[in-house]
Amino acid sequence: MKSEILSALRAQKDYVSGQELCGQFGVTRAAVWKEIRQLREEGYEIEAVPNKGYRLTAAPDTVSGAELKSRLETAWAGQNLVYLDTVDSTNDYVKKLAEQGAPHGTLVVADYQSGGKGRRGRTWITPHGTTIAMSILVRPQIRPEKASMLTLVTGMAAAEAVGQITGLDVKIKWPNDLVIHGKKLSGTLTEMSAEMEGVHYVVIGTGINANITEFPEELKDLASSLQLELGHPVDRGAIICTCMKYFENYYEKFITTQDMSLLIDEYQRLLANMDRQVRVLDPAGEYGGIAIGIDEQGQLLVEKEDGSITRVYAGEVSVRGIYQYC
């Protein structure tokens, strides 16, 4: 009931009477007071005025289950929510839940991730209270070769959410990394369980540098955080819930056509590589060119010096351009 009370307090700028809360949730005043007291212990500032009721005046920077549930505005994305104070990898945790039958849209959020995974086996560590570490489970009725496009869908959702909440001009380095001023803010890793004919489930994990203020020496010139860019901490819960709202919208569009045809324009508006010189590190041979957007399959279109256009498939090759971290 904690999240429901938080939702009710957030919905009203003025006071909400204890009697109104009792009637809304079918509980006693004592039960309401117990939840209010627990919320205060967790750092929420809640005024209580006789004959007026309760009013939320301040909230802590937390990504707890109650906090996120009280702010989600989705039909299914994140509605089955699991919050973990500490986990080795949110992706691994979601995969275990998936094997146990967890429903489509299950979201796992962790405050601390000790062994998060990045591309090519890199470790993505997220210290307590500083970053966003989340993974969502989806069960799309698509062929396995189409699942990689969900990485682009998630990158779009994260970019839009960060931009909306912070006002920063965040872009996507194809296929999914968030970047600003030439530095990496976020990465996404998609993992799949499938057979030849179909997908059992897809797990999409995203890590965002939210309130990190220091990076190791080797990353200082390659990575940044939202706090470093803004000069003040960001509301991690707002970003997570807004990301889920965008993800649900973009996912539904993707499933309608099972490609990026309904999302190309929006994606290319966010594409940092657009009309930029890139270097494609293909095992068959490196080559350069100008990135001119993506096609309906999410492949990066690169125009070579001879005028020919090649399609780069996410996951098969690396693309280097104005950013050096990749």
UniProtKB/TrEMBL annotation:
Which Pfam families does this entry report, sorted A to Z? Answer: BPL_C, BPL_LplA_LipB, HTH_11
One biological process term from GO is: protein lipoylation
* Molecular functions (GO terms): ATP binding; biotin--[biotin carboxyl-carrier protein] ligase activity; DNA binding; transferase activity
| UniProt DNA-binding residue ranges | 18-37
Record's keyword terms, sorted: ATP-binding, Biotin, DNA-binding, Ligase, Nucleotide-binding, Repressor, Transcription, Transcription regulation
- Give the first-level EC class, as a single word: ligase
Its catalytic activity?
biotin + L-lysyl-[protein] + ATP = N(6)-biotinyl-L-lysyl-[protein] + AMP + diphosphate + H(+)
- Gene Ontology CC terms, in alphabetical order: cytoplasm
Q: What InterPro entries does its record include? A: aa-tRNA-synth_II/BPL/LPL (IPR045864), Bifunct_BirA (IPR030855), Biotin_CoA_COase_ligase (IPR004408), BPL_C (IPR003142), BPL_LPL_catalytic (IPR004143), HTH_11 (IPR013196), Transcriptional_repressor_C (IPR008988), WH-like_DNA-bd_sf (IPR036388)
- Where does this protein hold biotin? S89, T90, N91, Q113, K184
* Record domain BPL/LPL catalytic: where: 66-255
Q: Which residues form a coiled coil?
A: none
- Stated EC number for the protein is 6.3.4.15
Function, as annotated, reads: Acts both as a biotin--[acetyl-CoA-carboxylase] ligase and a repressor.
The entry's family comment says: Belongs to the biotin--protein ligase family.
Q: Which HAMAP family match?
A: Bifunct_BirA
State the protein's name.
Answer: Bifunctional ligase/repressor BirA
